[in-house]
Amino acid sequence: MALPGKLLQKQSVLRSIAVIAVVSDTHLPRGTRRLPARCFELIAEAEAVIHAGDFMRQAVLEEIEALCPTVYAVHGNVDEPALRSVLPESRELLLGGRTVAVIHDAGPARGRLSRLKARFPQADAVVFGHSHLPLHERADGFQIFNPGSPTERRRAPQRSMGLLKADGDELVFEHVWLEETEAR
């Protein structure tokens, strides 16, 4: 497994990174399911990856690291013990003077934005997963972002992931909607 020291850091500093791929809830391997081709492409083109947990197997983390060696990840509730032992439950990243926190399970939808702001008071944004439901909410200069799942949409209208762009000192999140038929 690449970069275990980096994965264990509580806070990481990212400088001059323009585009970060944001994923969660990959839940692989499971049958013949694979990451969609567009997801592979965006991860390979990114300067870093944020993964908000539920890889399931360490081999999935290693596959993502092979595409983009700079991976900032947390463990999720279905990750195997090997992953849980090397990935933190939460972490904070500095990006262009802004702080992005990452956690897998952000709790119930009701009050989520204020609850995450209270849990990560220094953060400008929080990336989370678990629900598989794409979400982007903002209030008073703080934002929360769930990229959804690239492999298992559940109640979401479509499979998805996200991109995070550092635009000066602003954090700009966007969802990327993935085709149901594309797979790699």
Supply the number of helical segments: 5
Radius of gyration equals 15 Å
Largest sheet: 6 strands, mixed
Broad shape: globular
* CATH-assigned fold name: Purple Acid Phosphatase, chain A, domain 2
Number of E strands = 11
* Average pLDDT reading: 88
Q: Give the CATH level 1 class.
A: Alpha Beta
Q: For the largest beta sheet, what order do the strands appear in spatially?
A: 1-5-6-7-9-8
Distance between the termini: 22 Å
Our count of domains comes out at: 1
**Structural class determined from secondary elements:** alpha/beta
Order of helices and strands: HEEHEHEHEEHEEEEE
Would you identify the CATH H-level superfamily? Metallo-dependent phosphatases
Determine the fraction of residues in helical runs and give it as a percent range: 10-25%
CATH architecture: 4-Layer Sandwich
Question: Would you write up a description of this structure?
Answer:
The protein is an alpha/beta fold and 184 residues long. The protein has one domain: Metallo-dependent phosphatases (Purple Acid Phosphatase, chain A, domain 2), CATH 3.60.21.10. Helix content is 21%, strand content 32%. The chain has five helices and eleven strands; from the N terminus they run αββαβαβαββαβββββ. The strands form two sheets. A six-stranded mixed β-sheet has the order 1-5-6-7-9-8, with helices on one face. Strands 4-3-2-10-11 form a five-stranded mixed β-sheet, with helices on one face. It is globular and about 45 Å long. 41% of the residues are buried. Mean pLDDT is 88; it is low at 1-10.
